[in-house]
Design brief:
The chain is built from 18 helices and ten strands. With 569 residues, the chain is an alpha/beta fold. The mean pLDDT is 87. The site of adenosine-5'-triphosphate has 11 residues, from helix 10.
């Protein structure tokens, strides 16, 4: 079993801030069960002292006490689990928050290697299981341990032979449980795995609906789904069959235990060693003790299997995070230099950028041009710190970029990607993207700059129009313009446009470019484009060819432009 202190330390750390509620939950669960046991215990008084002795003076006290204990039991039956639910909800929220924060700190190459549905699975399955483990399953185990100790004491006190026989039956039950446990664990793991495959597939099917329709691949998609669903169904059925077999083996033991208690207890009553009232109570207690042992065993098995969920989430949360940097960049950016920068996406892959040695002129419009796959986007991703150079450094004001506080650096730059992500929210929220204190006038001005103002105003709800997921209700060009406006609103020191206007027609692109140039006069703007028209008014042009950067002199005539044209188309 994979129990060790590290797991419990980690689980215990989840209870920070909610430990009192957890303890309250455990205590309430214990009181709830004990109150029922005490009510059962009073049956001895009722039978032996009242009914057999025909002494009715204490009858009403016993009945009232029983009613009181049942009332406590009924009340705590709801309040105990309520406290536990509170703990479950708190842990679910805290873990989801940590995972969400982690997603923003995970190195991008690591994130890209994972299917996004895997992260959805972390949120929906693993976190749910861990919160239930901590808030429900562990408190219930603690409760059962206390209850079984109490019952062992009472049954042992009534008669040691009864206790020994019930312990023997429980032992037998546990032996059977141990026989089935590894098989059940293996099957449960398989069910979990196939279920998660099914969830991931469903999630990805939803995302690929458009392609499936467009390529008329319904049948193929259905077959894929059937295949994955059948794997899950077979695993779940096999697990169900095994659970049935286990129940079939343990049921006779339960009946055997009940019969032996009846036999031994009855004999002790006839011998006068046990009163009828105590026998009736002990009979019920032994039955409960048997259940208690079974529950403890099952809980331990369950908790042990939950450790795989704990492992997965710990691996993620305690995994590699990207370098945050600790140096502040107080002043404005005066200098950006690529100093022998090499970059590989993977240790074993061939280099994408080779010995890049360039100095970006600040306050100018810089263009990166080159054939597809040359490494242009990779360069700007290094600037946006989505990746780190494998060798060499990017120096900003002579400080290695990796050492600058990420938050500090990101407040100075803004990037617009070719395929920007828009949220299923209002246009206003997509534009502001959490930036506050932007006046309506400034918002209008920026929207006019990127020629989206008239379109927004033509909408019935204007800025408050909700756009569909990923901006599905907008055209590609409108999406790009909103993304451009979002970046311009931040008025960054460095603006990076990675094919950010590629979906616009040449006329509109030209118009927007003139506006942006005016707005960003004396500010640094880096553009990546394949169209000659996009880079024509750049101050400096770098040709990125097979991972190498060469500064090309600004063409002075159409022949020289022809050379650039050949290298970008
Ligand atoms: N996340 C990634 N993991 C592995 N390789 C990648 C990744 N992103 C890009 N590449 C590879 O790096 C190389 C350069 O890609 P990059 O996107 O920088 O080129 P580009 O010049 O911007 O191309 P384009 O003009 O087509 O956008 C390509 O060979 C590409 O396959």
């Amino acid at each position: 079993m994979r129990w060790n202190m590290r797991y419990f330390k980690w689980i215990s750390s989840l209870l920070n801030g909610i430990r009192h509620m957890f303890l309250l939950g455990v205590v309430l669960l214990i009181i709830e069960s004990l109150s029922l046991l005490f009510a059962i215990g009073l049956q001895k008084q009722l039978i032996d002292e009242v009914l057999f002795k025909e002494n009715y003076t204490n009858f009403h006290i016993i009945v009232i006490s029983m009613a009181f204990l049942y009332l406590i039991h009924s009340l705590l039956f709801t309040f105990g689990p309520l406290a536990c639910h509170h703990v479950v909800a708190h842990i679910r929220f805290t873990l989801s928050k940590h995972l969400m924060l982690y997603l923003h700190k995970i190195p991008k190459d690591k994130l890209q290697k994972e299917r996004s549905a895997t992260f959805v699975h972390y949120f929906t399955q693993d976190i749910r299981m861990i919160s239930r483990l901590t808030g429900e399953e562990i408190p219930n185990l603690l409760k059962e341990i206390v209850i079984s100790l109490f019952l062992i004491f009472i049954v042992g006190y009534a008669n040691i032979i009864l206790l020994i026989s019930i312990l023997l039956f429980s032992l037998l039950n546990i032996v059977i449980g141990r026989y089935f446990a590894p098989k059940l664990k293996k099957m449960a793991k398989n069910v979990e795995k196939t279920k998660s495959e099914l969830l991931i597939h469903s999630e990805e099917s939803i995302s690929s609906t458009r392609e499936v329709i467009a390529f008329n691949r319904h049948q193929w998609e259905l077959e894929n789904f059937n295949r994955i669903y059948n794997r899950y169904f077979t695993a779940a059925m096999a697990e169900g069959q095994l659970v049935n077999k286990q129940m079939l083996s343990s049921e006779p033991i339960r009946w055997g235990a009940n019969l032996s208690i009846l036999g031994i207890g009855g004999f002790l009553v006839l011998q006068g060693q046990l009163s009828v009232g105590l026998f009736i109570v002990v009979y019920q207690y032994t039955s409960r003790l048997l259940t208690s042992f079974q529950t403890i065993f099952n809980s331990i098995m369950l908790i042990s299997s939950r450790m795989s969920n704990v492992d997965r989430i710990r691996e993620v949360l305690e995994g590699e995070k990207w370098n945050e940097g600790d140096k502040s960049l107080q002043s404005s950016i005066t200098n950006i230099k690529f100093d022998h920068v090499n970059f590989k996406y993977d240790d074993n892959a061939s280099p994408i950028l080779r010995d890049i040695n360039i100095e970006l002129p600040i306050g100018k419009k810089i263009a990166f041009v080159g054939l597809s796959g040359g490494g242009k986007s990779t360069i700007v991703q290094l600037l946006a710190r989505l990746h780190e150079p494998t060798e060499g450094n990017i120096l900003v004001n002579n400080i290695p970029l990796n050492n600058i506080k990420r938050k500090n650096w990101m407040s100075k730059i803004a990037v617009v990607f070719q395929d920007p992500y828009l949220f299923p929210d209002t246009i206003r929220n997509n534009l502001l993207f959490g930036v506050e204190h932007i006046s309506d006038e400034y918002l209008d001005k920026i929207c006019k700059t990127v020629s989206i103002y008239d379109y927004i105003k033509s909408l019935k709800k204007g800025y408050d129009t909700i756009i569909g997921e990923r901006g599905i209700t907008l055209s590609g060009g409108q999406r790009q313009r909103i993304a451009l406006a979002r970046a311009l609103l931040r008025n960054p020191e460095i603006l990076i446009l990675d094919e950010a206007t590629s979906a616009l027609d040449v006329k509109n692109e030209h118009l927007i470019q003139i506006n942006i140039d005016k707005l960003r006069k004396d500010k640094t703007t880096i553009i990546i484009a394949h169209r000659l028209s996009t880079i024509k008014n750049a101050d400096v042009i770098y040709l990125i060819k097979k991972g190498e950067a060469i500064e090309v002199e600004k063409p002075k005539n159409s022949e020289q432009w022809e050379f650039i044209y050949e290298n970008i188309q």
